[in-house]
Each structure stands twice: as C-alpha cells, then as structure tokens.
Design a protein that fits this description.
Layout (H helix, E strand, L loop, with lengths): L7 H8 L5 E2 L4 E5 L24 E4 L3 H22 L13 H6 L3 H11 L8 H11 L14
C-alpha cells in the first residue's frame, strides 16, 4: 500500500478546468498550463517543470461594479415591496432588466420601459422611476465574459 500523499502538481491539475464555474452573479475561469493533467493525457511526471505551474485565474467582472449592481437590485426589491404592498415572495412578476435599461440611450425611453413593467401597480410609480434612473446613471452594462486567449 502506498501511503505517500499525491504530488502537488497532480492535486492542482485535478481541480483545473477551462469551463466556467458558477458563482453568485459572476464567472471565474481557470486556465490550465499546457500539458497539465487533462483526462486522457497520460500519467503526470513530477520531473517536468511545465507541469508544476498553477492555473491562471482570470476574473472577468469588476467586483466594484458587481457590488453596485447587487446594492441596486436589493433597493429595487425593497421599493417594489412598498409599491405593491407585499413581500418579495408575494410580488407579481415584475421584470426590470438593468442591462436592458442601460442599452437605451434616453431617460425618456428608459422611463417608458419602466412604466410598462409597472403597469399593474396601483400606486404612483413616478418617484421610483425617477430615483432608479438616477441610480443607474453612470453604471456600465455587465456583458458576458469573453474567452480571450483560449
């Protein structure tokens, strides 16, 4: 029986992947070094210095932008709860897509889209719309990550 721990290069190689790993609202990609432990690539020889390299981690989204987006979404849910006089679970289906709003060039068009989403609300929505438009001003659209260098 072999009681020696696995070689560090083997344990690192077994966790590397080029597929995106799901996380809370962002994606992190692991890019393995050439020749490092892919299934079917044969046994790993511990003497090869190329195989000892760690995977390179690339985060495609700016954490600050993600944090701003999360705070905004929490604020939207809070405001919608007040507008509809109910908890989030009881709220009617209201879709407010921030990226969709950011693609629109004028505040008038954005306001119109928001009013369409809030058509079933019996309370006045003008203050909510005005405040939301002010909060998204200067935000950037969160585009899907691109696979560069793969």
């Amino acid at each position: 029986i072999n009681n020696t721990p696995p070689h560090p290069a083997m344990s690192a190689a077994s966790t590397e992947t080029s597929a995106p790993l799901p996380t809370a609202g962002s994606r992190v990609f692991f890019q393995g070094a050439p020749g490092v432990g892919c299934v079917g690539s044969g046994p790993i020889n511990g003497d090869d210095p190329v195989q000892k390299k760690q995977g390179k981690v690339t985060v495609k989204y700016d954490r600050k932008e993600l944090r701003k987006r999360l705070v905004l979404e929490e604020w939207i849910i809070e405001q919608l709860s007040e507008l509809y006089d109910c908890e989030e679970e009881e709220m009617p289906e209201v879709e407010i897509d921030i990226d969709d709003l950011l693609e629109v060039n004028s505040d008038d068009e954005r306001a119109s889209k928001l009013q369409e989403s809030l058509i079933d609300c019996y309370k006045p929505t003008e203050d909510f719309v005005r405040e939301l438009l002010g909060r998204i001003r200067g935000m950037r659209k969160l585009s899907a990550p691109t696979k560069k260098g793969l």
